[in-house]
Each structure stands twice: as C-alpha cells, then as structure tokens.
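Suppose you are handed a protein chain with no further information: no name, no annotation, nothing but its sequence. What can you learn? This example shows the usual starting point.
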Amino acid sequence: MARSSWCVSIIGPTCIGELVGGWTGTGDVLELACGPGTWTGQLLAHAQHVTAVDASPEMLAIASTRFDDERVRFVQADVFGWKPDRRYDVVFFGFWLSHVPPERFESFWSLVADCLKPAGRVFFADDNHRASEELTEGESSSVIRRTLNNGTHYRVVKVPLRPADLEQRLARLGWDVTGTPTSGPFFWGAGSLDRP
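A reasonable first move is to predict its three-dimensional structure. Written in structure tokens, the prediction is:
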C-alpha cells in the first residue's frame, strides 16, 4: 500500500472529504509541514486552492513533482517563523503536531489561529506511538532516537499526544477541537477557534 493510501486509511477516506466538503471545492486550504505531499492530493480533491508549506527544499521538490496543478502553491518556510499572506478556510497538518516541541505548542496554535478566516476550521491527523527502543532519553522525554532504514540515527521531537488531553489543552487556549481515536495509536482532530 502506498504511503498516501496508508495515511488516508488511518483516518478514513471520508474524513478528508468532510474537511473541506462543506465548501464543495471552493475552500482555500493551508497545509502546514506538507513533507513530500502525502496529503496534498487528498486536499486538492476537495479544495479550490492549497498552499503547502514545508521547511525542507528536498521535501518540496518531491511534492512539487507529484502535482501539476495550478491550484497548489508550495512555500519553503520554517513553520515556526512563517507568517501567512492571507487567511484560509481550513488549516491542515498530517503527522506534524506530535513533532511540535512542547515549548512551542502555544505559539504554533497562535499561528494556526492567525491563518484561519473567522469561520475557519482546523483538521489534523497524528499518532502517539513511540517505540521502546526510541526512548533513549527516557519515557518522559519528548525527544526520541529515530533510526532510518539505512541505519542513520537522528534525535527528533515526538510528543506522545492523547486526544482527550489534547482537547483539554486546546480548550484552555480558546479552541473547540474534538480528537477522535481510530486504530492503534492513530487519531484525527477537527475543530475551530471558540470565538465569542
């Protein structure tokens, strides 16, 4: 199974449709940390326009070769320092939130808020899996040691998020987000800013 099919099967094929389905092809979607474009095609199937942001020029090069569509714009930028040039109907990120360092969690959600139109929504998919062999700095650490197929080791941020805890934490920041577990360690979340 191709990685994009695998990812979409985790949250269910209709969930991406529900993400922007209310706009029936007229919504503007921002995809943060788009990587190689795993989710971009799914978003394009429902959105009027997708802006896909990633810090890695290598990932953007891969993503841009996958889509010959004028409705997608790729932007190379560090998500933590990037400022949007417009607002979006939907902000999406797939398997990114668990890589946001705990000390940047609030500022990241502030960015998401700044990117949304007043009635905009956020949608994300992620997992909370960390293999025991990755926990070289202890179970309470948000840093793990990831080993690639070629044997190269990297230290990466991987926060073990739990949907119910995430809902409560986001509520304290003014968000109304529902986290929905799927299978195994996977979950997706959807919601909006709880505006007065």
